Structures are given as structure tokens and as C-alpha cells.
Amino acid sequence: MWHDATLVAAKDLRIEVRSRVAVNQVAPFAIAVLLLFGFALGPDRRTLEPASAGLFWVAVLLSTILAIQRSYSVEASDGARDGLRLSGLDPAGIFLGKAAAVVAELLALEVLLTAGIALLYGAHLSGWGVLVLTCVSATVGLAAVGTLYGVVASGLKTRETLLPLLFLPVVAPVLLAATKAFDAALAGTPSRGLGWLEVLVVFAVLYVALGIVAFGPLLEDG
After folding, report:
1. What is the rounded distance in angstroms from the CA atom of residue 73 to the CA atom of residue 69?
2. Does 172 score more than 90 pLDDT?
């Protein structure tokens, strides 16, 4: 399983490096989201700074949808999806590999967005331990949910609109917990975010386990 996961993750990341979709489309989209929120709330940093954690995670959430759709769109033509299903790879390994590739892309994006909220919103970056752990655990949860529901939507003609409908309601706890943990860290009281961090870890573990079990049947049905 782990060997197959490494192969799939390496394949997806090589495709992204060569196509530069994440650099040319997803990253500019995420920055545009931050800028638009800034315009909507006004130039006063006293208004923007308290909202920076929530706006950060909304941008990540929307970018995750693009990353997941991209992850499956490369296999939607030329029978690549059937080839993946018939490759003999462990379905659990395929799930972990695709999720790991999305995690890597999102973590790189979150570094950029962290700089963005500091520059655009005047957020004071502190509590780095909680910030990093929140990013990792929340991103794993988002990638696991997205990869699981992405395989459900990828075989349908309405996949572009179905994936957000499936994905966004499920990850609402991630948005809430990650925002609260970030708020605590940025406010200089990271210990107050530990409880929310535990919620993120539990969510991530549950959906990774569910994906390992359910991805194979969903891939076959799709």
C-alpha cells in the first residue's frame, strides 16, 4: 500500500510540476480571494486583522476544490481512469497517494497565504507551533475528504458542480476548528487553540481511515 501510494503521489506531483497548473491558476486564485475579501471589508486593518484567520481558511477551502478537481481531471480522458482501476495498484495506496499529492500542493499554497495575510491584513504571526500543526492536520483532513468525494464525482458529467456540493458541508468542522486554532495562535494565546487542534486531528484520522476502506469500492462503482 505504501509503495503504491508513493508511486501515485509522485505521478500526480510530476504532472503538476510539468503543467504548472497549481502555480499558474490555483495560487493566483487563492491570492485573488484574499484581495477580494480585503476590498469587501475595507482598507482598515483593524477590521481585516481579526478576520484574517477565517479568510485564510476560506481561501484554502476554495483552493482545495480546484486542486481536487485537477487531481481527477488528468485521468478523465483517454481512458486513464480505467487504466488506474486496472493497474493492479492497491486502491488504498491510490487514495493515500492522491491525497498526499494534494496535501503537498496545499501546504505550499498555505505558506504563500500566510505571507499574504501578514502583508495584506496586518496579521501578527505568532504561536508557530500551533499554526504549523493546524495547517498540517487541517490540510490532511481536507485532502482526505476531497479525494474521497472526488472519486464519487469524477465519473459524472456534473462533477464540476457536484464536488463542491458534497465537499463543503462535510468540511465545515474543519473550517470552524482551523479558524479557531489560528485565531488563538495569532492572538498570542496558542494554548487556547489546542482543543480545536485535537478536533482537526480526529477529523483527519477518521477520514483517512474511511478513505482507505471505501476508496476501492467507490473507484470500481465510478
Report:
1. 6
2. yes
